[in-house]
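Reopening this ticket.

The earlier resolution said the output was attached, but the attachment link was broken on my side. Pasting everything inline this time so it's all in one place.
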Amino acid sequence: MNETRRTWNPEVFLALIVGGILVVLLVPLPALLLDLLLVLNIGLTLSLLVMMFYLRSPLEFSSFPALLLMVTLFRLSLNVAATKLILLNGFGGHVINAFGQFVVGNNYVVGAVMFLILLVIQFVVITKGATRIAEVAARFTLDAMPGKQMSIDADLNAGIIDEDEARGRREKLSHEADFFGSMDGASKFVRGDAVAALVITAINILGGLAIGVLQRGMTIVDALQTYTLLTIGEGLVAQIPALIVSLSAGILVTKAATTEGLGTHISGQLLRRPEPLMLSGVMLLGLGLLPGLPLLPFAVLAGGAMWLSTSVRRRQHLASQAAGGAAGELPGTAASQLGGAGKAKQLAGAAPGTAPGVAPGTDKQPALLSTVSPLVLEIGFGLIPLVDQRLDGDLVTRLGKIREQIRDDLGILIPPISVQDNIQLANSQYRVLIRGMERGRGTVQVGSHLAINPGDVSGQLEGVRTTEPAFGLEAVWIDSKRVAAAETRGYTVVDCPSVVATHLAKIVRENVIEVLSRQSVSDMVDRVKETDATVVSELVPQQLNIGGVHRVLQCLLSEQVPIHDLATVLETLSDYAGHTKDPLLLSEFCRQAVKARIVARHLGDDGSLRAFILTPDLEDGLQQSLSRGKTGALSLSPEQADALVNEIRKEFGRLRDRADAAPVLIVAPAIRPHLARLVHRKTPDLAVLSYAEVPDDVRLQVLGTVDAPMAKEALAA
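Inline output:
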């Protein structure tokens, strides 16, 4: 069996198929084989059509243009084979005879009319429309490529994405351009196929009349009846699959505007508002009451539309009630970030009873005038019971703890979290939006528990295997009755609200600088002014405005530096803002002022700081490149930067498995911010500190040293 697998070659198989199509063009086929190939053609096109309904993106079927060309060639070869069989034997097989006799009622006039109607539908409507859409999509895709490439480069330079993600986006952009360009050309084959079908049909009828009358001695009426019915039957057998393929192509190119399945996309928009359905039902009922029109079909359809409208209205009412109870302020805490196996245990920290709950609705703030909510949790219809307190749903309480925990950890109060239903999401799906942009989504199974594998379990569990959304750990959805058995085997078991709350907490922490608004900074400064008016008056607005303070705080929070002692931060800014307005440089001075808080987060059980450093030659080279470049960044090529980061990641991974606390990288103050930005693109869990940020009373344990020969040689050159 293994040998068979090794010899399987899809390219050879595809070449044999194309060769078989060419054989069909040349060699006369028996009627039974032709019937089989005609049915295969119909089945293949139906499979393509059904597949289009489930695609979420055109790129999921990027091979369609090539497949469209081969299907068109296959259909034309069947036209030629059927023509030879009809003209030589006066018989086209059972499939063609069935279409010629049963489908069109053994009337060649009716058959000719049906064939022409199908041809007009395909040529004038579907094929022409699909061709035009493909042309426009190809042109717009090519025109938008420079702007999209610049956007990718800008995100990469800003540190929003890493190099791997940027490379993936560029490849996707290239694939989009190739796909729509290929579809533009392939659609011309479909249009030419419709023209060829009309010409082949006319030739078959004329050829059949000539053979029947001149060679077989048939009367004109008999020859017309025989050969026209067979030709029309053959034309219908060919045109119906051609129509299906054209429809598939049209659906595929129109999928560019959505990333959902076609059924989900259409139903989500048609059922968004109940009023049009109700009005449609009323109008249908009114038409049925007109004299002469049958009332029954109109009444049935009107009743169906009204029932559907009522169902949509009831569903939206339930969703709005659930969301309304949760749309206020959601105070509270979720899990704090941990590394390794501790991440699974952290999820359990969001379970009931781990922290005192804060009643929803307290500490309400006035609604902002902005149309974009800072923090939104959108849920599918099936997750509404999790937020409905009448159904014992406590997701609101779990989410409420996030604000308090982040305030305790980082020193800022994030805006209230709005919970909303979204009928376009799957029933068990949720997503997190920050200022209107999606930052993460996941799926939970209501009524089940998530058993998370922390890495040291003693056995496997039966259930739906998945990945825990917050930390990417292996997990299994299990029945609630099997929780005790899973915990016995070493799994960390959490319920649905804990999964959602922990995932949202992690997303908020990773994007906290987007959550912190300038107005929030102004409010924080005003609170400091109540106790330290002198510090604030010296700084704002004489030396630094609120915008400058905002940018400095964003630099600090981007590396999870707590700003509880905002008075000290503002005092430091007041000392140095007269010399520089660079937020990155000012944030470095602030880091040194609050270094005790920074280091306290990384101390081991014995109170010491585990760390690793760079070799002196490498560190000196990086400092010299910084001063030599005069651009505020390390003068490293992408290859040299990758080599340096990979060596740091390797040493970090080796030491993290051995120490009780994650080690930190300590470097010279001048290169710390630039190296931290470089490292965090691929290793966000690694804290990069400077020697100036280590307090004198903290015992430092240097566990390792990083040396990057490639980067060091380039720096020395």
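Reporter confirms the inline version is readable. Residues 163-215 form the longest helix (53 residues). The mean pLDDT is 80.
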